[in-house]
Amino acid sequence: MSRDDSDEAYVVGLCNEVLEETALTQHTFDWLLGDPGASGRRAKLPVDAFWPGRRMVVEYREIQHDRPVAHFDKPNRLTVSGVHRGEQRALYDARRGSQIPAHGLRLVVIRPADLDADRRGRLRRNRDTDLETVRKLLARTSDEDRVTAAFRRWLLAEEWVPVTPTDRWTDIEAVRGEERLICEAKGRTSEKGVDADIAYGQLLRRMTAQTTTTRYALVVPTSSVKAVERVPLHVRRVLRIDLYEVTDKHQVLPHLA
């Protein structure tokens, strides 16, 4: 199947119809890069669709992005990242998930489960139903923005002072006296477990400070609390990761480790 006939092209076509604009497909940015190869060169990572005027990126994540598929993962062959293709795909998806919003662009991820698809993740291409779903997905404001705004208000009320993050991919960083809090925020999602795993990975990469006065936080909506709590409390205590729940009424409920 050619790219023009792929499910990805079908989904991007629906987005173009909703937005009444034609996307730049397989677009690359100078700041979105893969891992270095043997020569040290880092290839640019493409995105499925980009609308410059709307500052919006759409990624269509087929089933192999969320579960092992040997045909796509090639588990016996290592990539330049030192892991097989499936693990590299997850790394690069997480990189897109952090860097695209960090550069002021809106990222919308669409999965087969959002549309009319069979158990193998192949789209049935029920155009009218899919078009209405895409319309709702593109119109939806980011719930992560809601979660982040509510938590920032809570921090100020608790006498924390938000500061420019040491790592520019960090969602929120704040100080209070000698304490420092480094936060990763997530909004409502249909893939709660996947997003929780990605959030933990993002925090782990930011654990460069050995001082015990630096703590880390996952800030999530009520719907994602159970997914985050799959990592046992004693592990979160060792890693100094606290959980903050943002309710549907925008209240912040600390679940401190």
Structure write-up:
The chain is α/β, with parallel strands linked by helices. The protein folds into two domains: 3-139, 3-Layer(aba) Sandwich (Endonuclease, Chain A), CATH 3.40.960; 143-255, Trna Endonuclease, Chain: A, domain 1 (3-Layer(aba) Sandwich), CATH 3.40.1350. The chain is 34% helix and 20% strand. The strands form two sheets. A six-stranded mixed sheet has the order 5-6-7-8-9-10. A four-stranded mixed sheet has the order 1-2-3-4, sandwiched between helices. Helix 1 crosses helix 4. The chain is globular. It starts with 6 loop residues before the first helix and ends with a strand. The mean pLDDT is 86.
Summarize the structure.
The protein has 257 residues and is of the alpha/beta class. 34% of the residues lie in helices and 20% in strands. It is built from eight helices and ten strands.
